[in-house]
Amino acid sequence: YVVKPTNLADEVTATGSVLAEEAVVIKSEISGKITSLNIREGQPVRKGQLLLTINADEVQAELRKQEYNIRLFREQEKRQRTLLDKEYISAQEYEQAKNQLLTAQADLQALRASLDRAYIRAPFDGVLGLTTATVGTYVSPGAEITTLSRVKPVKINFTVPSRFANLVRVGDPVKITDEATNRQYEAKVYA
């Protein structure tokens, strides 16, 4: 044989795992009974879409009560300001009425935040996973309800032998073969 110069390429074959670009377990932040469930397993959902509602009747009642209190405190503060302008009361008495109004407004914001936790929405576009929850299920904080995964695009997690590690760079091309369909895809190293 006549020896001729030729180009050689270092190629590494590795087995990898397909990962969703983003994935999250949907959990409840509050306890209560599920009153509506808009989850169909395997269904694509959009960011902000309502997935389920947890009974929030008590919080809604507290919210209405606080709104009435704010109206009352606002009127009291207005009357106290008029009396203060005419110097019929002290500044301290007016400040107490104003503080009462401000405290009630802060409590209202806290109640609205609690009410928002009763409505669980999709944090990003994706596909829903399996669920065991149904309408009427009682959930507690941290209870897993379903999963949500963004599967377009996907990530491939694979390892490279240490002797090749210093040759792999961000942006390098990667050829991926799907074991099930034998289709090939092209990707790039990003991390």
Radius of gyration, taken over Cα atoms and rounded to an integer in Å: 30 Å
- Average of pLDDT: 90
CA-based shape? elongated
For the largest beta-sheet, the strand count, sense and barrel status come to: 4 strands, antiparallel
Beta-strand percentage range: 25-35%
Give the low-confidence spans. none
Number of strands: 10
Q: Largest beta sheet: what is the strand line-up? A: 1-8-6-3
How helix-rich are the residues, as a percent range? 25-40%
Alpha plus pi helix count: 3
Order of helices and strands: EEEEHHEEEEHEE
Helix vs. strand class: alpha+beta
Describe the structure in your own words:
With 191 residues, this protein is of the alpha+beta class. It has three helices and ten strands, in the order ββββααββββαββ. The chain has helices spanning 57-85, 91-116, 162-165; strands spanning 16-27, 32-37, 44-45, 50-54, 119-121, 126-128, 138-139, 144-158, 173-177, 184-188. Strands 1-8-6-3 form a four-stranded antiparallel sheet, with no helix packed on it. Strands 5-4-2-7 form a four-stranded antiparallel sheet, with no helix packed on it. The chain is elongated, with a radius of gyration of 30 Å. The mean pLDDT is 90.
What's the topology here?
Blueprint: E1 16-27, E2 32-37, E3 44-45, E4 50-54, H1 57-85, H2 91-116, E5 119-121, E6 126-128, E7 138-139, E8 144-158, H3 162-165, E9 173-177, E10 184-188
Antiparallel strand pairs: 1-8, 2-4, 2-7, 3-6, 4-5, 6-8, 9-10
